Amino acid sequence: MSFGIRFRALGRRRYQHVGYVADGISRADAERELTYTLEQVRRGEWRPAAEFVPSDHRVVPTFHEAATDWFEARRIEGGREGRGLSMAAEMSLRWQLQNHLLPHFAKLSLDAIGPEEVDRWRRSKVREGRLNATSINTCLRTLSSILEQAVEYGQLDRNAAKGRRRRLPAVKPNRTYLDRADYIAALLDAAGDLDRDGRVKPYRRALLAVLVLAGLRIDEALRLSWQHVDLARGIVHVPGTKTAAAERAVNLLPLLRDELAAHAAARDDRPPNAFVFATGTGGKQSATNIRRRVLATAVERANARLAASGTGRLPEGLTPHSLRRTFASLLYALGEAPPFVMAQMGHTSPNLALAIYAKEMDRRDGERERLRALVEGTDWATTGTEAVRSSDEGFTSPTGLAKKGL
Question: Which CATH class is domain 181-405?
């Protein structure tokens, strides 16, 4: 990692290398150097380090220097409305640079990175076998973005990483989701078992219900506070953290409304800014812990339930995002149109919505009706979930909250 400064002087954009972190140079040093240099420019005292170089001479930085400059600009000015990257986006870029791009390209000057060098890096990643095609292509797009900036700055004549010929063939991802009512019921019931066995206040069933029945991303669910949950109106307000479309109001399905009402009733001391799914000390849950200790364990128990009833197993490789896709499936089972589903999920592209829509519209086995009955809290199967259903009394959740009373 190194630091450099950019400024405009004598009618041109200028780049000046300050030094490497390994040599003790810090951001504060770079900021002081920039302040000093700008003052020189203001007084008309600044001159290039090489005063008598040919007019067509250009200083070509190393990839390490260029990547550092590019990353800092993205970190500060990227993201939604130029307000900086989200934590997840910043971590992703750091991972790409530190683990995969810098080890190969760091010491090369930008003009030494041609198509052959880019292809050599790509082939090395394929041989390592640590990254799939999608991840390799993601790193290539980052490399291309860094080199494109160098082209714009006049440091390069062409971007060697640009174009489809540098990319690996796209591999269709295995997008899993739950498309059967008994699968959803088994997962939620298994999470309820974990709540009863746990030593902290119950939250697992309600959390998985939010992922399945509201389609929140895992970080959106873990950042959710009680001020965002409007049980009276049946809405969850999701603050925007990823894109402008991510900020949205999700309509609560009847079953989820009951689950959140039960969860709220068990937390009568909750302040508005408290996390809905807080740790025992009131902090934010770790997404990694939720994946490993909640979802994975609930899947294991749900499979045991399903095996006992002879109804198969949940799809392999379920993730929190699988549950988000499940929400799209549920909305189509309720007969919702793709534009509404996109708005509820916070999508800007219809591709995923239409792909799931096509599958849902092709159903001929009555599962759409069972899914509809499940989320509306009506009788959908002889076994059902843990919930008690009565045609006279409406739907009663495991905690005793009657649907008609909400």
Answer: mainly alpha
